[in-house]
Amino acid sequence: MSRDVQQKLAGALRLTEAPGEAAQSAAADPEPGPAPRVTVFEPTPFRLFCVPFEDMLGEEPLPPDSTRIVPAVANLCWQVIVERLNPVWLAAIAEELKESGGAHVDALGAALWPECEQALAAEIADTRAGRRRTLAERTPKNLFRRAETITAALHDAGWIQRLKRLLGTPPVGRLDRGQRQALREAVEQLARRRDARIAVHVAAHRLRNPAELFAVLAGAELGPLSALGQALDEERDSLILSHVAAALAALDEPISGREALTAATEHAETAAAILATASGLEHHVGEAALLRDVERMQQALAERLDASLVPALRDGIVSAWDPATIDAAPDERILAAEDAARAAARLGRDAMLIGTEYSIGLLVTDALSQVHEATRHLAASAQQARDESARRCAFLLVAAIRLVEILAGSERAFAVLTHHRPVLQALWAPS
After folding, report:
1. Which of 136, 179, 371, 388 is 20 to 30 A (C-alpha) from 199?
2. Residues 6+ apart with CB under 8 A from 155
3. What is the pLDDT of residue 166?
4. Positions of the chain with pLDDT under 50
5. Do residues 92 and 9 share a domain?
């Protein structure tokens, strides 16, 4: 048994002191989330140009109702911008970026973004007037709307960068109270100058749950309504639902191994959180369709969980704690079962919203039954165990108690510990 495993699972022995103490310790130590996705900044003028709207960029093919911007649109906009910029000045920007290694994004962007905005706005105006053909001849679908969004994002780049700093490094999960207050204040400051809906729309793509940002800003003054601001505001529901659709699509992928199980659980939690927030938003007049879409997607999420994730979690726990094989179960399998139990407990918090109370409840019941049967087998085996075999039995009993605590709480775990205390004391007693 590895030292890492010993250190991790020996902590569960604190239950011998008092059941509430372990619960307090678990509450004090939040579960680690996924490693943040760090955007690698390439020190080029094009990459700097994309920074204000980088969270909106998405890979082709995109769904017809997607609110994202495909790289082809960004590339085409950059090409027409470059034609209008002073090449000597642009080369100087490129040199400064190279020398700084991309360390002064906001400072260099403050010089580049206004020039790009003016150039792209002029190109759009000339195209509409028939004076230029580049955009018209090489127009991907929805180019003008997206080109206008890019132009507006460049205009509001400083504010968007401020919102991005308040949101944090993507993927952005739940916002804390301080973030909520700071975001609302920043948006209201922008609204006193111009339409804040554009910056909000761009920044919302940074969140796993974009509906949360709209909920934070519910009732806030967003400034005078511009034509583009109104158009983007009308895309709010598509933006929210597209994130749910992406999570549902990810749940269609095969679940194999601990990493895939963790990722699937995160996708399910993300979808559930978005749907919960979206159902409470103040909806546009006459758009009961959003509520129908939310209900439809809740049903789709429940179907996916019942079809793949819940069975995978159940198998991850039950197969690891099979009494017939538990004595020889490798450490990795035991720890994977604990991961599955944590995932099941997390999904249990959203079960009523999703409509999976029965399947999650049955999963927990089956898992606890299997674990209790395995502990009885281990306790019996421990009577004849010696040396390494005895330590192995102790390790597995502690792991089982920890699993019960995760699935059913510290009181239930304390009851199991009390029942097996004599065996554990004998196994862990110094020889």
Report:
1. 136
2. 114, 117
3. 97
4. 1-40, 285-286
5. no
Per residue in 10-61, pLDDT (tens digit) is: 443 344 334 344 333 333 333 333 333 334 457 899 999 999 999 999 887 8
pTM for the structure as a whole: 0.80
Residue type, 9: L
User: pLDDT tens digits, residue range 308-321?
Assistant: 999 999 999 999 99
Give the number of other Cβ atoms within 10 Å of residue 323's Cβ.
17
Classify 223 in phi/psi space as left (phi over 0), alpha (psi -120 to 50) or beta: left
**Total Cβ atoms within 10 A of residue 82:** 15
Q: How many CA atoms lie within 13 A of 161 on its CB side?
A: 18
Please say which residue of 218, 234, 250 terminates a domain.
234
Residue 39 lies in a domain: no
Residue 38 in any domain: the answer is no
Given 217, 234, 251, which residue is the final one in a domain?
234
Residue type, position 174, single letter: R
Residue-wise pLDDT for 61-116, tens only, equals 887 778 999 888 999 999 999 999 999 999 999 999 988 887 789 999 999 999 99
Question: How far is C-alpha 111 from the chain's CA centre?
Answer: 33
Q: Find all residues with CB under 8 Å of 379, minimum gap 6, and list them.
A: 397, 420, 423
Alpha-carbon distances, residue 309 vs 246, 257, 357 (angstroms) = 16, 12, 14
d(CA 357, CA 353): 9
102: tokens are 């991309």
> Are residues 261 and 183 located together in one domain of the fold?
no
Structural domain range at position 186:
45-234
CA 5 to chain centroid, in Å, comes to 28
- What pLDDT shows up at residue 203? 97
Report the helix count and the strand count for the chain, using DSSP H and E.
22, 0
Residue 382 to residue 258: CA distance in whole angstroms: 30
* Residues 6+ positions from 275 with CB-CB distance below 8 Å: 244, 294, 297, 298, 301, 353
Q: Report the number of distinct structural domains present in the chain.
A: 2
DSSP of 139-170 = --TTHHHHHHHHHHHHHTHHHHHHHHHHH-SS
According to DSSP, residue 56 is labeled G
State both tokens at 22. 């372990």
Q: Give the pLDDT confidence score for residue 429 in this predicted structure.
A: 65
